[in-house]
Amino acid sequence: MLNLHALSVSRRRRSVLSGIDLQVGAGEVVGLIGPNGAGKSTLMEAALGLIPFSGRSSLAALPESRRARQAAYLPQSREIAWPVSVEDLIALGRIPWPGGGRSPRDLAAIDAAITRMELQDYRKRTALRLSGGEQTRALIARALAQETPLLIADEPIAGLDPAQQLACLRLFRDLAAEGRGVLVSLHDLGLAARFCSRLVLLVEGRIIADGPPDQVLSDDLMRRAFGIALHRIDTPEGPAILPL
Ligand SMILES: Nc1ncnc2c1ncn2[C@@H]1O[C@H](COP(=O)(O)OP(=O)(O)OP(=O)(O)O)[C@@H](O)[C@H]1O
Question: Which residue numbers delimit the ABC transporter domain (predicted)?
């Protein structure tokens, strides 16, 4: 679904990503974790073909029209440029598909995305006047309306309340169960452990671990990545991981 090979990015003549090999398959929620500035957003932007890179991205190799039918993207910046209604914002997700956003197929996809993000009461409101968390949910709904096999989401739960964080990650898990692939960057390591099938740990532009959450969240790797110890509390729902 997504295949990155020897992908490298330099910015201002500084290496930001180096030799990235990464696969995201159908049915996987792959969590991208690592310190601020490690290169998580850069990896996503390069994989999507939004910035120059060397190496190979199976997604960026597609023609632009097919790329937008293959992957939807929630960028870290939640900028909404125009005073459109929530419904019209979500309809933008249908642009890659024939129908102009108003075919019965488009309307069904928009309705489904609104329902999944519980935005029924917001659909006629001006997106710019929603709260930050509500705007994020509307932008996730736009990505869902795109109905792509792959979803790439950059810190989707940043700014969401705890219940919405859980709802968002449960939704991603459901998408994977439906056969889609999800690549998501997260800073909450406990939630990453609970909801991701695999974790990829990025440090200074290189992948230093890629595997099951328990393996990647080892004391050694966490100390190497973040320079601190983490305390793990196991609950019936999964681990909670606290910085010490
Ligand atoms: N447009 C740019 N020009 C120059 N350097 C950049 C640019 N964008 C990002 N960088 C640098 O690239 C590095 C990786 O940034 P990136 O945003 O990918 O990190 P990140 O892992 O997503 O961080 P965070 O967790 O803080 O969001 C950082 O050192 C950043 O300063």
Answer: 2-229
Contact 233, 242 (CB under 8 A): yes
Q: Which CATH number does the domain housing residue 122 bear?
A: 3.40.50.300
Pick the residue whose CA is nearest to atom 18 on ligand 1: 39
pTM: 0.95
Q: Which residues line ligand 1 (CB under 6 A)?
A: 11-12, 16, 34, 36-42, 76
| Domain count within the chain | 1
Domain encompassing residue 86? 2-243
| Ligand 1 atom nearest to CA at 35 | 25
CA-12 nearest atom, ligand 1: 4
Joined together, the tokens standing for residue 236 give 């019936």
Number of C-beta neighbours around residue 13 at 10 A:
5
Q: What is the pLDDT of residues 31-89, one digit of tens each?
A: 999 999 999 999 999 999 999 999 999 999 999 889 999 999 999 988 888 889 999 99
ipTM: 0.97
The protein residue with its alpha carbon nearest to ligand 1, atom 5, reads 11
Task: Look up tokens 């006047």; give the residue.
Answer: 129
Ligand 1 centroid vs 44 CA: distance in angstroms?
A: 11
Nearest to 150 by CA among 65, 42, 72: 72
> In DSSP terms, which residues pair with 126 in a beta bridge?
85
